Amino acid sequence: MSPVAETPGIDGVTTGVLEHWVNGASWSGESTRTSPVFDPATGDIAAQVRLASESDCDAIAESSFEAFRSWRASSVATRTRVMFAYREILSERRETLAAVITAQHGKVLSDALGEVGRGIEVVEFACGVGELLKGTYNEQVSTDVDVWTVRQPVGPALGITPFNFPAMVPLWMLPVAIACGNTFILKPSERDPGAAVLLAQWFTEAGLPDGVLNVAHGDADAVNALIGHDRIRAVSFVGSTPIARHVATSATGSGKRVQALGGAKNHMIVLPDADLEAAADAAISAGYGSAGERCMAISVVVAVDPVGDELVAKIVERAKVLTIADGRSDGVDMGPLVTSVHRDRVRGYVDLGVEEGATLVLDGRNIVVEDRPDGFWMGPCLFDNVTTGMRIWSEEIFGPVLCVVRVATYDEAVALVDESDFGNGVALFTRDGGAARRFQQDIEAGMVGINVPIPVPVAYHSFGGWGDSLFGDTKAHGSEGVNFYTRAKTVTARWADPATRGPDLGFPRNT
Ligand code: NAD
């Protein structure tokens, strides 16, 4: 393991007070409230973030509305050029962005770089806005009449994002919204807000006009003020299910379109014919990567008889050699959890699993990391013999806790997955193409992996789950993202010879 690398000292992003980004500049607003931003590996408070008041949110929404008047009329050529310039800046500075993510979230640097890469892919998708916004045209639908449909921006849009992907999740939203001619307000997680500030500063550098992308920092007060604000026309949310439900209900109640992505409990079914080495590798990577703080993490392995004993043994063998340390060092597999409060909540679930009667095969609750005694550590935990009556099966834990459920048949495995309230991702490990085909048709989930444990769709497909993992009709990015941030307008036009004109009070007929 290498020594801990220094995070580039970016004043106002990793140290000091993180301010809002409004009208192309740092802005503190009137609120004096702040919240601490921790370095999860040391446990220190590294910075503070400003928390917007209701009147700050009002000013930010008005700024977005003003900017929308001109940005909606900007040419596709202008938007495309700005998007390409942004893509170049993000690519050149990806290491800096990743370092800021690691410093505030705790995930290891290579993982942070992976997140940044997937975010950049959405910017690349948005570079093709000319193609994405092409309308449809029908000539001569009636005599001398043509009809065409165009897609126009909806207006100022709001994105509320979670702590676990501080760059990728904002980038699921804002490049698509902005390329479609909307302005965008980003309300990032107050736990790791540094990446959001860089994303906005760099977009301004790329030539984005002031006010087209504003960042409003804050907590529930800011979210509630913004989702109820008249100027905002669309709300994208990503976070836990209870807050997703609240945002979806409140924002639709005030007449806005909403997509609210919630929590998850992703299952990985391992059939008897699967490659068990590959399945164990996948369970480890998807269960403990990013310390389990991924909405696409595998949290339940469903072992179909007779693979249970062998699979559990292989998972244990791999989990025991994982390196847990400061994510800024090389060769680290797992960093700390995001805050001590979250770490204690995850520990509480492990205590609960023991009370509920599951077999705790690996216990990472009391792990000690050398030189970092106050970091928010948690080692890999593995429960075997978990059943569907247990809360550790039904509730999202969001930490490095993997549950194994044993079942007798494929049908039992599928029924168990479908019983979950969530329907985000799911995976099947098998060598049987017929079983895989049947599975992808039958299963109740929005994203399916066949021998792929984390089936995160590429930018030109759309990301989103079913059930309590998504409230709203459209998923993020891809064509569904474009539809979400645009409204269809259909024009019917007649250019007829004046001699054919005359009054006709009947309902328009196509002739
Ligand atoms: P969270 O729900 O606590 O917070 C998400 C956002 O909501 C933050 O910006 C936060 O400031 C705001 N918020 C928190 N409490 C609020 C309240 N009472 N009222 C209004 N706004 C509030 O989620 P988190 O802990 O930051 O992120 C982890 C969760 O996000 C997990 O449940 C994870 O599964 C989920 N997630 C889902 C996806 C997905 O695509 N479905 C992706 C990433 C994360």
TrEMBL record:
Name the SUPFAM superfamilies on file. ALDH-like (SSF53720)
Read off the Pfam families from this record. Answer: Aldedh (PF00171)
**Record's keyword annotation contains Cell membrane:** no
Task: Tell me which Gene3D superfamilies the record gives.
Answer: Aldehyde Dehydrogenase, Chain A, domain 1, Aldehyde Dehydrogenase, Chain A, domain 2
**Which keywords does this Swiss-Prot/TrEMBL entry list?**
NAD, Oxidoreductase
PROSITE patterns found in the cross-reference section: ALDEHYDE_DEHYDR_CYS (PS00070)
For this protein, the Enzyme Commission number is 1.2.1.27
A molecular function (GO) held by this record is: methylmalonate-semialdehyde dehydrogenase (acylating, NAD) activity
CDD domains in the record: ALDH_F6_MMSDH (cd07085)
Q: Does the keyword Lipoprotein apply?
A: no
Task: Identify the residues that the record assigns to the Aldehyde dehydrogenase domain, covering every copy.
Answer: 29-491
Q: Which GO terms describe its biological process?
A: L-valine catabolic process; thymine catabolic process
Entry-linked PANTHER family: MALONATE-SEMIALDEHYDE DEHYDROGENASE
Q: NCBIfam families attached here?
A: MMSDH
Please give the name of this protein.
methylmalonate-semialdehyde dehydrogenase (CoA acylating)
